[in-house]
Structure formats: C-alpha cells, structure tokens
C-alpha cells in the first residue's frame, strides 16, 4: 500500500511539474517563417499597456507605442470600427509582428523592410467575419489562399494586403504591405515549418517566465546582423554565426522594466562553460561607480568569448603595448575579473577606467606588469615610478611634465588593479567604506547577483559626457535615457549551448 501511495505521489508530482513547466508560445510563431529577422508578440488586450501609459514612457519613448496594423486600436479606428466591440472579441491574446529580410523581390515591390502582422482568431468563422470586415478587392491567390487589399491601414485607406490562413486547428488574419511577405507566411503555414517548430527555439523558450509577458521577442541574430549590411537591392552578405538566436520576455511595473532573455550558440561551436559568480570585486569599488562589469571566472569568460572578439582584444593590446595578450596576461588571470568607470570627486568627477583581476599566480602577474611597464617606458616615453613599498606596491605612469595618467598595484595578496585616468587610490585603498555592492540603486537592479553582472548608473551618466570615455550624447539619445535611473544585467550559462540574461531597468520617480 505504501508503495502505491508513494508511486502515485511521484506520478502526480511529475505531472504537475510537466504542466507548470509548459510555457505557452505565441500562436503566431507557428506560421512565422524561419528566415525572419525578428518577431515581436504583443498583447491584443489594451489593459496590459496601462503600466506603460502610467509611466509616461509613451510620451518620451515613441518607439514603445507601435501601430499593430489593421487589427490594432489605431488600425480599426481608421476603418471606422470599434476595436473593443468589433475586433477584440474575435482574436487571440497576442498579435505577432514578423520582420522579414529585404530581398530583390521585396525591394522591387516596396523599398522598405517587409513585415507581416499575424493575428490568431478564436475560430474559423470569426476569422472569416473579420476578413470580410477589412478586406478590399482581390489581389492574387497563393496555393488556394486568396489575398485581398486591406482597408483602414496607414497611410491611405487602400494599402497593404490581407488574408485568412488556417494552420492546424487555428486560423489567422495576416496583413502586410508586401504581397511577397504574405506569400512566404502562407507557404510556411502549409509546410508546417514555422519558427515554433525549431528545436533550439523550443528549448530556449522553456527558460523564460511561465506567465505571459507584456512583450515576447525572438531575434534570428545571424540574419539580423547580416541585414544591417544588406545591399540596396536587398542582397545579403554571409551572416556571422557566433550566436544563433535570442528569445526574450519583457514585463513592466511602475518602477521597473524587467527582461529575461536566452541566447543559444550553433551546435558546431565550442561548448559554453559555467562562469561562476562575481562576489568580491563589486565590494572593492565605491558606490559612486557609474558602470561596472564583473565575471566570476576570467578563464571561463574568455573561453566563452567569440573568437572574433578574442582576436580584436588581442590585436588591440598588441598594438598598444607590443605584448602578446594570450601568453602574457590570460594564463594568470584565474579568478574574478571586473572593469569599472569610477568618477574621481577630487577632480570634479573626472572619470577613471579601472580593471580588477584575481590571480593564484602572483609571481607571473608581477612579471607581466614588469614587461608592461618596460613597454610603456620604451614605446611611449612615459615615466614609470613605484609610489608605495612592498608588500602591496603601487606603480604610477606619468607623462611630461609629471602628470599621472595611470596606476597599477595590489589591493590584496591575490587582487591587482590597473587604473587609467585620474588616480583612484584614495577611493579604493583601503576598501571603500560604502562599496557598490551595498548601493541601494545597485541592489534595486541586481536583486539576486549570480553569474556575471553589468551595472550602469544612468542617472549620473551625464558626468561622463564630453570626456575621453564618453563624448557628448546626441540630443535624441540623451532625451531617451532621461526616464531611466539604472540598468542591471546578470548572465548565467545554463548549459553548454544556452545563456540566460536577467535584465532590470529602474525607472526614475515620476
């Protein structure tokens, strides 16, 4: 009897876990073509956007208020319909915008990026009723599916094409300004090979929150990056393959914008390894730090870095110092690693760039910095001077007539630093009395530190403007950043192919 009870309990637990772990996928992803550059799935119910409206972001961030096409409140208003009464009761919970690559065919049809709105209907009769409401004259037919002109679409009353597509047990209203884009969606639906059928997408979407978010995003990163270099006629270059794709879920509260994202790498790329948690180095920089990046293991971080980025870093270090980055520095950087922008209060908040690294091979690290000092002296003719004695010596680089421009040294037996810019010694030695890790703003955007961490104090970013580290921001960029107080990102390698990103943007008080 006990065995039966235990077995039933285990079976019930497995069933419950399976149900809770199933995450609903936006219905439109079933017929979204796999060559899409990106997709956005948005709620068709206006109420979830109330938090956005209350934040005043729509007024200051117009890109957060897109038009949904002919089945959005704005689109149906132009067609003389009542969205809440005549459209919303007929459609599903999410509409999906699919951005497709420009091709010679789409450029010839209309010289703008082709996109398709995919809107699931509750059933076929309702879909047919909606189609009758918005369709104009017939345009063409694809594999038995009729395409019509669409009414009530910006910028004129007769622009774009609309169709009703059936797939599995679901019907969809699909709309685009490009007939060729509609044809591609129809072909995808009939072949049953939409994005939702991709195994990598299916695995990645499981790591996103189970609740339905405000916005769901999918990015075909190789195709999207290649599209940014497309020729005027729509011809695409060979895409990069460092990261295969990204899925993300975005939610919003009156205080924060929260995003969780998963990226995955191609099957033939070197497997990802765990990077550990950055714990210590955020306590070695002051709470005035404007930007901070910390990784739990530099060795793992370096192994996970795409080869193209590795080469760029190695080439830059060799160009500046004449030293081989891979052989001189990488081997002894065995612990945590961090980089930070820190303002120096005594110099009117002039910014300093600080690098921190832990090591379990201090002699090799000291030898590397001796080589670096020699190269700086010989190549740049700078003055190299030891400014504090052992056991924690500090070295200062100065330019004529004696202006200090960099320092390096040891903060402990296993932690060294390199600071570029005004001296930070008074702010980091001894340990800061108010470290960044205890800052309320840091803790607000990184409430659960794990893996690698990125923090940017957006409220005080203007302190860096017109400096060597950050030129003056364009007015539109500066204006778009005004509502935001801080950005926090944590990253976790979930398995040899996937990385999870948790992002929080804290909004300023209204």
Approximately how much helix is present in the residues?
A: 25-40%
| Cα shape | elongated
Tell me what portion of residues adopts beta-strand conformation: 25-35%
Mean pLDDT: 85
Biggest sheet architecture:
20 strands, antiparallel
Q: Write down how many β-strands occur, each being a DSSP E stretch of 2 or more residues.
A: 20
Structural class, please?
Answer: alpha+beta
Rg of Cα set: 28 Å
Oligomer: single chain
Number of domain modules: 2
Ends distance? 62 Å
Q: Note the total helix count.
A: 17
Pick out the low-confidence regions. 1-21
Organism: Parathermosynechococcus lividus PCC 6715
Pfam families: DUF3352
Protein name: DUF3352 domain-containing protein
InterPro entries: DUF3352
Quick structural summary:
This protein is of the alpha+beta class and 510 residues long.
What's the SSE blueprint?
Layout: H1 2-21, E1 38-43, H2 50-54, H3 57-60, H4 73-78, H5 83-87, E2 94-99, H6 104-109, E3 115-121, H7 124-134, E4 135-142, E5 145-153, E6 156-167, E7 170-176, H8 179-191, H9 199-205, E8 215-219, H10 221-227, E9 245-252, E10 256-264, E11 291-295, H11 298-304, H12 307-321, H13 325-328, E12 337-344, E13 350-358, H14 362-380, E14 383-388, E15 394-399, E16 403-410, E17 415-420, H15 425-428, H16 440-445, E18 452-457, H17 475-481, E19 484-493, E20 498-507
Antiparallel strand pairs: 1-2, 1-8, 2-3, 3-7, 4-5, 5-6, 6-7, 8-9, 9-10, 10-20, 11-12, 11-18, 12-13, 13-17, 14-15, 15-16, 16-17, 18-19, 19-20
Protein name: DUF3352 domain-containing protein
Pfam family, one: DUF3352
């Amino acid at each position: 009897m006990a065995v039966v009870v235990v077995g039933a309990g285990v079976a019930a637990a497995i069933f419950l876990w399976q149900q809770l772990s199933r995450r609903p996928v936006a219905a439109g992803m079933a017929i979204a073509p796999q060559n899409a550059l990106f997709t956005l799935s948005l709620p068709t119910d206006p109420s979830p956007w109330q938090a956005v409206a209350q934040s005043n972001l729509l007024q200051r961030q117009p890109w957060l208020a897109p038009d949904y096409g002919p089945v959005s409140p704005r689109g149906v208003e132009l067609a003389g319909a009542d969205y809440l009464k005549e459209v919303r009761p007929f459609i599903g919970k999410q509409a999906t915008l699919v951005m497709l690559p420009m091709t010679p065919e789409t450029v010839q049809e209309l010289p703008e990026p082709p996109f398709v709105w995919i809107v699931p209907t509750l059933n076929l009769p309702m879909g047919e009723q909606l189609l009758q409401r918005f369709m104009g004259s017939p345009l063409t037919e694809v594999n038995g599916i009729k395409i019509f002109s669409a009414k009530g679409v910006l910028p004129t009353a007769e622009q774009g094409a609309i169709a009703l597509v059936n797939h599995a047990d679901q019907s969809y209203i699909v709309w685009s300004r490009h007939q060729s884009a509609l044809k591609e969606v129809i072909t995808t639906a009939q072949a049953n090979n939409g994005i939702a059928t991709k195994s990598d997408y299916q695995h990645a979407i499981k790591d996103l929150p189970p609740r339905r978010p405000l916005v769901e995003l999918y990015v075909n990163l190789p195709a999207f990056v290649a599209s940014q270099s497309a020729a005027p006629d729509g011809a695409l270059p060979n895409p990069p393959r460092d990261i295969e794709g990204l899925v993300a879920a975005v939610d919003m509260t009156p205080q924060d914008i929260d995003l969780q994202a998963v990226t995955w790498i191609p099957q033939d790329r070197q497997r990802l390894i765990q990077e550990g948690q950055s714990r210590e180095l955020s306590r070695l920089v002051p709470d005035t730090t404007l930007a901070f990046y910390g990784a739990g293991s530099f060795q793992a971080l370096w192994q996970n870095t795409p080869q193209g980025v590795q080469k760029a870093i190695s080439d830059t270090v060799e160009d500046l110092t004449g030293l081989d980055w891979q052989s001189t520095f990488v081997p002894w950087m065995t612990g945590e690693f961090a980089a930070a922008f820190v303002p120096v209060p005594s110099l009117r908040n002039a910014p300093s760039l600080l690098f921190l690294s832990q090591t379990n091979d201090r002699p090799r690290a000291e030898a590397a910095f001796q080589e670096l000092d020699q190269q700086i002296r010989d190549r740049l003719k700078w003055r190299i001077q030891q400014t504090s004695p052992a056991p924690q010596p500090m070295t200062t680089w100065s330019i004529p007539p004696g202006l200090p421009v960099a320092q390096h040294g040891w903060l402990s037996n296993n932690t060294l630093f390199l600071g570029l810019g005004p001296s930070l010694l008074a702010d980091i030695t001894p340990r800061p009395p108010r470290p960044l890790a205890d800052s309320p703003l840091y803790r607000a955007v990184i409430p659960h530190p794990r893996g690698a961490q990125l923090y940017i104090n957006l409220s005080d970013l203007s302190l860096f403007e017109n400096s060597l580290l950050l030129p003056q921001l364009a007015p539109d960029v500066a204006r778009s950043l005004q509502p935001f107080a801080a950005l926090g990102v944590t990253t976790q390698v979930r398995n040899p192919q996937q990385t999870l990103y948790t992002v929080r943007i804290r909004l300023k008080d209204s």
